[in-house]
Amino acid sequence: MARWSELGALGPLLAVPPDHLTEETLPAEVHRLRAADPDGRLVATVRAYLDEAGNGPAAAARLHIHRTSLYYRLDRVTRLTGLDVSDGATRLALHLGLTALDVIEAGLAFDSRSTERPDHSSGGGGDRSHSAPDSPRTRGGHRCPPSPPPTA
Predict the structure, then answer these.
(1) Range 97-122 burial, b when 16+ CB lie within 10 A, else e
(2) 3-state SS track over 81-115
(3) Would the pLDDT of 73 be above 90?
(4) Cβ(91)–Cβ(54) under 8 Å?
């Protein structure tokens, strides 16, 4: 079980009601990238590049490819989609969108019927826990928090 204070940027995404966090609500940049990448290689490349804060050598190492291959793939993203990963707004939309996609695919969106949210009214709230459906997946360097077994 993860505490809200430990979720970092995932906390707000997990608090979005499931009917509001859907693939249709993902940024257009994510849709363009996925449409141009049927095998997922470019998505993985962009994800590694963003997770490594735009550090080409580190992203290449994460992907186990040469730096030249990384830059070729990033250039291919631009050619196929028109997305410029050197633009801050584009990077933000892609990073947030790909992280939201992880939450959607893992089924971790907040469910008000079975999940306790932090109590922000007292100014604290960091000590409450968030339970989510079990998901052993890790994507983009983000570990999805496990939940306790369901109670009858």
Answers:
(1) bbbbbbbbebebbbeeeebeebeeee
(2) HCCCCCCHHHHHHHHHHHHHHHHHHHCCCCCCCCC
(3) yes
(4) yes
Q: Is 52 helix (H, G, I), strand (E, B) or coil?
A: coil
Residues 110, 117 contacting (CB under 8 angstroms): yes
Structure tokens at 107: 């089924």
CATH of domain 2-116+129-143: 1.10.10
**Can you give the residue ranges of every domain in the chain?**
2-116+129-143
Question: Is the CA virtual torsion 76, 100, 127, 147 positive or negative?
Answer: negative
From the list 140, 143, 53, the residue with the least C-alpha distance to 98 is 140
> What would the pLDDT profile of 4-63 be if each residue is shown by its tens digit?
778 787 888 788 887 888 899 999 999 999 999 999 999 999 999 999 999 999 999 999
